[in-house]
Amino acid sequence: MEGAIFHLNFFKTVILTVFALLPIVNPFSTAALFMSLTKGYSSKQRKHTGYMACVYMFFILTFFLIAGGLVMKFFGISVAGIRVAGGLIIMVIGFRMLFPHEEALSEQEEKEIREKEDIALVPLAMPSLSGPGSIAVVLSVSSDLQGWHGYAEVILGIFLTAAITYGVLRAAEGLTKFLGVNGLNIFTRIMGFLLICIAVQFLASGVFEFSHQGNVNPP
C-alpha cells in the first residue's frame, strides 16, 4: 500500500512539474524564433541545434533546482518571497504572451545572432527556453522538496519538458507551415493564460505564507 502511494506521489510530482514548466518554456513560440535563426541550416544542423538547446535548458534548470536552497540561504530569501517574486515574474511573462507586442530585431541584432558560432545556448536555451520564469518556478519547487526522491521527481519532470520541447523544435518547420503565424499566436495566448493562472496561485500561496508568518511572529 505504501509503495503504491509512493509511486502515485512520484508521478504526480513529475506531471505537475511538466505542466508548470511547459507553458513558460512555450516551445511553440520558440519554434518561430528557431526557424528564423536557423535559416540556411541543413536539416542535420537544425536538428543538432535544437537538440543542444534542449540539453542546455535541462542542465540550466537542473542547476537552479539543486542550487536553489543554497541561493535562498545565502541571500536570506524565504519560501514566501520566492513564490511572490516568481508569481510576479510569471504573471508579467503571461500578460506579454496573452497580449503580445512584437518588436522586430534590427539588422545589427540579426547579424550578431547569425555570426555567433552557437545559437543553441544564447538565445535559444537562455533566455528563450530557460528564462527568468522557468528559473523562478524551479526555485519555488526546490523550496518544498524533501529527500533525494523529491529532486529526482522534479529532474525527471524537467527532462520530459526538454524532450517535449525537442520534439516541437524538431518538427518546427512542419508546424510553422501547418499552423501558420495565426496558429502559433493562438498557442502563445493559450500558454499565456495558463501562465497567469499559475502566477496567481504562486502569489496567493506566497501572500498566505507571509500572513501566516506575521500571525505567528508579529513584529
Throw out a few tags for this protein.
219 residues, disordered C terminus, globular, mainly alpha
Averaged pLDDT, please?
Answer: 79
Q: Which strand-content bin applies to the residues? A: under 5%
**Count of beta strands:** 0
Give the number of domains: 1
How far is the N terminus from the C terminus? 45 Å
Q: From the alpha carbons, calculate the radius of gyration and give it in angstroms.
A: 19 Å
Helical proportion?
over 70%
Overall, the morphology is: globular
Total of helices: 9
Judged by helices, strands and strand pairing, the structural class is: mainly alpha
Query: How would you characterize the largest beta sheet?
Result: none
Uncertain segments of ≥5 residues (pLDDT<50)? 215-219
Element order: H for helix, E for strand: HHHHHHHHH
Describe the structure.
This protein has helices spanning 2-25, 27-37, 43-75, 79-98, 107-115, 120-129, 132-142, 148-170, 172-216. The chain has one domain (2-216). 85% of the residues lie in helices and 0% in strands.
Give the gist of this structure.
The chain has about 220 residues and is an all-alpha fold. It is about 85% helix and about 0% strand.
